[in-house]
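queue> pop job 88
queue> type: inverse folding (structure -> sequence)
queue> payload:
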């Protein structure tokens, strides 16, 4: 046995994918539901953790779950690794979210005091920035609710479903209404939060929503008298002048087309961002324009950050950008929407990307409609 010990980390690495496949069953087992109900039968301190650069789905699902737990008499606090975009600051209770980059000690205390930790909209601790070590080090009971593929195996309970599911918000609805059997807990404020996550993760119900269940949930949310038109305005019609000009600049000066690979890409340097007075969230959505060209099937959006190049990938059809981001750019996500990072400079990063296109040319040019 002793001779195996030095190789244990390697063996674990090799075994991990098998473990992951077994975990990703997509449903919450009856015994898991009972275990959560048993814990929630007494007053709990609950920490809700979301991913770095939280989007509408992360913030919406966390606020909805927090309000549900509050209704049931629990103490629930949301910890975000960094700040969230201002277009979400109108959301009910968003002012109560703790931002780890600004309030790290408070976040640490909340984790220390927590009875349970709910992890929302991410599948691995390397997605939670400065909160990573806090969650890796604690043995507190952790529940995952998420829609990314391949959740890591270190959660005590995983409600993870990447198929037939639009968003974590949809799963939080199912968690409250079906699993906890509390549909009447879904009030207007909770419905607003869940609706935000569904529309922001589906491009206002235009992708990742080709399943009746998403619309059943939307129907239940609209039944709570939420004002969908107003929510849409609050989320989308919030551009500053410089943000809309940055978009114009991307489209006229920085959009590159590689017809021979059915691919486009946009890149922005730090200098560009400074010129347009970049605020967090200003580049959100820009990646989608590269894909809105009829002949383009794969697009990438590169932005220069302090320590790395941040990349967003999007695709149409069966070109798998989750695999692409994982294999080549230290990232991941979903089949048609993923993100990654490069620690080379912009020129080297784009050169690497273009070289890879050659390798995928056949796949990129295979008809898929
Ligand atoms: P975005 O391009 O909007 O930042 O990310 C698209 C999708 O990919 C999101 O669902 C996000 O959660 C996921 N994603 C983005 N970056 C990463 C990453 O570095 N690693 C993993 N595993 N997923 C990512
Ligand atoms: Mn999501």
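queue> result:
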């Amino acid at each position: 046995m002793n001779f195996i010990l030095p190789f244990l980390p390697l063996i674990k690495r090799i075994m991990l994918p098998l473990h992951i496949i077994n975990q990703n069953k997509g449903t919450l087992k009856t015994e898991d539901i009972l275990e959560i109900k048993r814990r929630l039968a007494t007053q709990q301190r609950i920490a809700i953790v979301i991913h770095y650069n939280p989007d509408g789905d992360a913030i919406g699902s966390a606020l909805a779950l927090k309000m549900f737990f509050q209704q049931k008499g629990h103490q629930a606090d949301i910890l975000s690794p960094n700040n969230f975009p201002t277009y979400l600051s109108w959301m009910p209770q968003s002012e109560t979210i703790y931002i780890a980059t600004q309030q790290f000690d408070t976040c640490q205390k909340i984790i220390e005091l927590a009875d349970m930790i709910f992890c929302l909209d991410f599948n691995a601790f390397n997605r939670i920035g400065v909160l990573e070590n806090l969650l890796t080090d604690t043995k507190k009971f952790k529940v995952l609710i998420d829609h990314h593929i391949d959740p890591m195996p270190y959660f005590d309970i995983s409600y993870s479903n990447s198929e037939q599911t639009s968003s974590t918000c949809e799963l939080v609805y199912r968690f409250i209404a079906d699993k906890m059997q509390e549909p009447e807990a879904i009030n207007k404020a909770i419905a607003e939060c869940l609706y935000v996550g569904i529309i922001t993760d589906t491009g206002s119900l235009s992708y990742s929503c080709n399943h009746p269940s998403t619309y059943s949930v939307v129907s239940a949310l609209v039944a709570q008298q939420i004002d969908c038109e107003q929510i849409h305005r609050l989320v989308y019609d919030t551009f500053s002048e410089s943000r809309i000009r940055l978009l114009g600049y991307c489209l006229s000066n920085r959009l590159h087309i590689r017809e021979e690979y059915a691919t486009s890409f946009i890149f922005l340097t730090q200098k560009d961002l400074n010129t347009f007075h970049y605020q967090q969230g200003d580049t959100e959505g820009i990646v989608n324009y590269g894909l809105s060209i009829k002949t383009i099937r794969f697009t990438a959006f590169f932005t220069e950050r302090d320590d790395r190049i941040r990349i967003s990938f999007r695709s149409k059809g069966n070109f798998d950008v989750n695999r692409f981001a994982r294999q080549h750019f230290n990232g991941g996500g979903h089949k048609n929407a993923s993100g990654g990072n490069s620690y080379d400079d912009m020129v080297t990063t784009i050169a690497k990307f273009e070289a890879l296109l050659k390798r995928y040319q056949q796949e990129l040019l295979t008809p898929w409609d």
